[in-house]
Amino acid sequence: KHLQRNLQQTCQRAGDGNGLVAQKQKDALAHFATVDDVLKRIHYCRVHNYTEQLAVVNSMSNVLKEHPNIRLLIIDSVAFHFRHDFDNMAKRTRLLSGHAQALNLLASKYSLAVVVTNQMTTKIKTDVGNKMNSVSYLVPALGESWSHAITSRVVLSQTEQTHRIKIKSKRRDHENGKDVYENITEDVIIRQASLVKSPSKQQKTISFIVVQAGIRQIPTKSKKRNEHQHTTASETSDSKKRKSS
To answer: Considering only Cβ atoms within 10 Å of each terminal Cβ, which end of the chain, N or C, has fewer?
Structure first.
């Protein structure tokens, strides 16, 4: 419902502009009138192992020919099935390399944006002179070969800070039989998105929050929150500056 409302508001803003471009934007966005209109434009496929995952990507050309308006392919997550039941790491590396090439080809051939999520894993670095002195840190899963296969990488992390926001809450007044709206405050965890690999952009980190209405920029003031940091990796790709697959 929030997505529907945001789209309708975008239609209105587009219609407030002048000229043919504004009218075309309004006409295009007006088709997204209901939640069902939005959902029916999303094609979903669930895979249960790495074989099915490879098969879906390899057959994606037929899907894109049948639905030429598709412009975004998301795999969530690309790493899950490849991190289980693999005793032969050389085989996994070969399959991942072919997987990346297939996604790169789709992005290039069909002007398709490819976004895949990865997982984070812990890597231990040991001091050669003192093996008792070791440091652990988080790195994206699937190893160096996958890191070289992708073009761009964005690492998502959760900080120990929160930002207080005001939200409108609805409750039912049973005595009057009406809905009552109240303004309440809520502490929302501040997250960060860090661009760590890109062929054309410099490395940069931005902060954001996730609220019911979507992703929002945060003001500068925030307060500490005692929570462990949690990080995931997100990788993006488009036809020319594509991110990986």
So the answer is: N
Compute the distance between CA of residue 2 and CA of residue 136 in angstroms, rounded to an integer.
41
pLDDT tens-digit map of 204-233:
999 999 887 788 887 655 444 444 444 444
Judge contact between 99 and 57, C-beta under 8 A. Answer: yes
Helix (H, G, I), strand (E, B) or coil at 144: helix
Q: Residue 162 pLDDT more than 50?
A: yes
Give the residue among 126, 113, 18 at the shortest CA–CA distance from 72: 113
Task: Give tens-digit pLDDT for 34-69.
Answer: 767 777 788 889 999 999 999 999 999 999 999 888
CA distances (Å), origin 17, targets 4, 61, 177, 234: 21, 38, 42, 35
Residue at 99: amino acid letter: H
Determine contact, residues 2/214, Cβ cutoff 8 Å: yes
Neighbours of 90 (CB within 10 A): 8
Q: Whole-model pTM?
A: 0.67
